[in-house]
Amino acid sequence: MIIPEKIANFESRIDFLIIMGNLRFDVVQDAFKKKAATIDTPAGKTSEFFGSQVFNRSKMKQYLDASTYERLVHCIDQEEPLDAKTADKVAAGMKKWALEHGATHVTHWFQPLTEGTAEKHDSIEQFDGKALVQQEPDASSFPNGGIRATFEARGYTAWDPTSPVFIQDDTLCVPSVFIAYTGEALDYKTPLKKALKAVSDAAVPICRLFDPKVNRVFSYLGWEQEYFLVDEDLYAARPDLMLTGRTLMGHSSSKNQQLSDHYFAAIPSRVAAFMKDVEVAGLKLGIPLRTRHNEVAPNQFEMAPVYEEANLANDHNQMIMNVMTRIARKHGFVVLFHEKPFEGINGSGKHNNWSLGTDTGVQLLAPGKDAKGNLQFVTFFVNILAAVQRHNGLLKASVASANNAHRLGAHEAPPAIVSAFLGQTMTAVLRKLLEVPSDTPIEIAGKKGRKVGLVEIPEIFVDNTDRNRTSPFAFTGNRFEFRAVGSSANCAGSLTVLSAAVAQQFKAFKADVDKAMAAGKPVETAVMDCLKPLIASILDTICFEGNGYSDEWKAEAARRGLDTESSVPKMFCKFTSAEAVELFTGQAICSLRELEARADVRWQTYSTKVLIEARMAARMALNHVLPAGLAYQRKLLENLDLMRQNFPGEYMVMGATQIGLIKECSEIIDSIRSRAGELDRAREKAEALEEAYPKAIAAEKAASALMCLRESIDALEEITDNAIWPLPKYRELLFIS
Ligand code: ADP
Ligand code: MG
User: Ligand 2 centroid vs 304 CA: distance in angstroms?
Assistant: First the structure.
């Protein structure tokens, strides 16, 4: 080992350790000195460079002959497959455009069941129609839940033409689905697309009760991406952050978010430069970024675009996460998408703002222009809530993960119970509807003057005054906001479940209305008669306007029959429950095998993450934490020894503080050692298991053992000499930017 000169001159091991500890101060000093990077922003208006890296419709028009363009647009709009001849022409046009923009490579870009995206670059020289439409990456190492044994047939990726190709750096990226040769989906995109189609197919017949011209219903998604930024030097000095994405230890900073002085405050200049850089890159990729601000926790931020069609919006979310990860390093940051990087302060979510709209331009989750439009709105509103109610446990499972487990149910995030918040206005409207005859028109308040007995909806919702941050599924004026989604998650996981659930409910509802109409009821009465039992049920069950964080709510939710399971591995059992199997196979969104595979992947991912954390925490306890504690203890002992030499008669009294601290250190050091041992044993037990579910259950025990170990480590950090502590502290990680 090469000992730096500075260190070699010191004789005692303590001084050596102090110097090692000082490495922390070096990185802190370096991080603190960093200045905002200068960035190149394109001259001119945003509209001049928006989508410049995307082969969008205007590029298609420019680079394809008229008939190829028509054919491609038709295939995109009707979601029909592209024939080989057209594909060749499309590929040629894309290639020309890509070469002009400096692309040297091409890749199918897809979303395997890891959170994140995958790409395998090929030279663009051989790019043709076949390569555009389908590729066969040897992607056997992606999670597949037993669908593909490595020796089995390969999987393939296929272009999703509804999401335009784009250039990232020097590579033409083709958004694709990822499927096994046996036909099962191996990704997030495939079931999402099927579920979105199911929603449209089920919603159109309901819309036609009100307007026969509707042919398609679109799902819209506006995600809000929360994230933390940490200086990269500090990050590099935290092995836990590097390997697990979160801090496995760290005593809380005296000041964190108590003053709420970070939320919406002026954005620090280094961060502002990063955001600007990301925005430019995002806008060039056609991502309509709109909002950026500081979040509640220190060094926590948020970014949101204007909402788009859900499949494209989700691709854009995946793209921007990649962009952010890369650009952060340019600014000396690492971006953390982990749901709970720091204990004791807010974690990060990805609020999914979701709504439905028709191809005739009507927003289905906003009040209409007249009584008919309002009835249509209430119809969708109520049916969506009925679907969420029926599948609340499955929806929760869809957002559950090892990471999100630290967030859901903790004080700042939606609880581990899915309920819905409607706000006073809509609650009152629904209550009123139960009281009045079914043919009572639902009016817009104020339009026709107030008449007693009428059901009225205000024209404009004052949504900001009527918000409930504790609710996982909240109505916010013209959309629902699903807040339980984790910041690192692929939105498609939960959106697929939500879409499948509402499609199923729409179908059942339409069948009921048909029966009522066949019995001679006029449309409006038939619809309202079918809505009433649903309204009564949701008001009593899924709707909850109170404090979702309270303990009373847990008891109340259980009484209402909502899913209150708090064990993540157990939540995943929902994927193969009879209800879920009926939901997914009944609408041909997922097969039983795919559902089993997804549950399996979730369990495996859970175990893998937790067991990596377990190993890391135990190693850090022994390699970083104990040496620091022992060094401090020795320092105290030496101090006491000097006292004994100089004041032999009085040192026991004079050194009472030292003696107390030495004893405290000893106790904590003992508990760290024994708890690290317990953690190792819990981890080994889980590692020895083969089957995904029992393994995940065993891993969950390791997760609790880790929390115990952490408690001791944090207690040691609290009393140990600051100069000796080797790991960047919470205050440094959170307040330097
Ligand atoms: P918040 O106040 O909830 O933080 P933001 O402005 O951060 O609001 O984000 C709101 C998100 O909701 C944006 O992405 C926005 O485009 C999206 N949104 C607004 N209206 C709708 C809608 N009708 N359907 C889907 N998303 C919507
Ligand atoms: Mg927001």
Answer: 7
Give the phi and the psi of residue 201 in degrees, each rounded to 5.
Answer: -60, -35
Mutate to test the pocket of ligand 1, among 218, 219, 224, 464 (most ligand atoms within 8 A of CB): 224
Nearest to 187 by CA among 135, 132, 110: 110
Q: What is the pLDDT of residue 369?
A: 87
For residue 482, what are the β-bridge partners? 352, 473
Contact 416, 567 (CB under 8 A): no
Cα-to-centroid distance, 296 and ligand 1 (Å): 18
Q: Is the CB of 480 under 6 A from ligand 1?
A: no
Q: Strand 473-475 relative to strand 420-421: parallel, antiparallel, unpaired?
A: parallel
State the Cα–Cα distance between residues 21 and 38, nearest whole angstrom: 33
> What are the φ/ψ torsions at residue 12 (nearest 5 degrees)?
-80, 150
Q: Whose CA is closest to 486, among 599, 407, 548?
A: 407
Distance 357 CA to ligand 2 centre (A): 22
CB 404, CB 571: distance < 8 Å: no
Rounded distance between C-alpha atoms, residue 441 and residue 430, angstroms: 13
Based on its alpha-carbon atoms, the radius of gyration of the chain, rounded to whole angstroms, reads: 29
Let me know: does 31 contact 19? Beta carbons within 8 Å.
no
503-507-511 Cα angle (round to 5):
170
List residues bridging with 82 in a β-sheet: none
**For 654-688, how does the pLDDT look when each residue is reduced to its tens digit (9 = 90+)?**
999 999 999 999 999 999 999 999 999 999 999 99
Decide: 496 and 188 in contact? Cβ < 8 Å: yes
Q: Which atom in ligand 1 lies closest to the alpha carbon of residue 478?
A: 23
The full 3-state SS of 212-240, as one line of letters, equals CCCCCEEEEEEEEEEEEEEEHHHHHCCHH
Average pLDDT over residues 56-72: 96
Q: Which residue is closest in CA terms to ligand 1's atom 11? A: 222
Q: Quick: pLDDT tens for 296-309.
A: 889 999 999 999 99
CA of 198 from ligand 1 middle (Å) equals 24
Question: Which of 353, 421, 461 has the most ligand 1 atoms within 8 A of CB, as the residue to mutate?
Answer: 353
pLDDT of residue 732: 95
Judged by average pLDDT, the poorest of 141-145, 241-245, 489-493 is: 141-145
Q: How many CB atoms lie within 10 A of CB 606?
A: 26
Is 375 touching ligand 1 by the criterion CB < 6 Å?
A: no
3-state secondary structure of 363: strand
- In angstroms, the CA 463 to CA 698 distance is 44
Parallel/antiparallel/unpaired status of strands 480-482 and 473-475: antiparallel
Mean pLDDT value across residues 225-233: 97
Average pLDDT over residues 185-198: 96
* Cβ–Cβ < 8 Å for 354, 219: yes
Q: Ligand nearest 352 Cα, by number? A: 1
- CA 352 to ligand 1 centroid distance, Å: 8
Alpha-carbon distance of 460 to 444, in angstroms, equals 9
Question: Which ligand does the CA of 363 lie closest to?
Answer: 1
Q: 353 C-alpha to center of ligand 1: Å?
A: 6
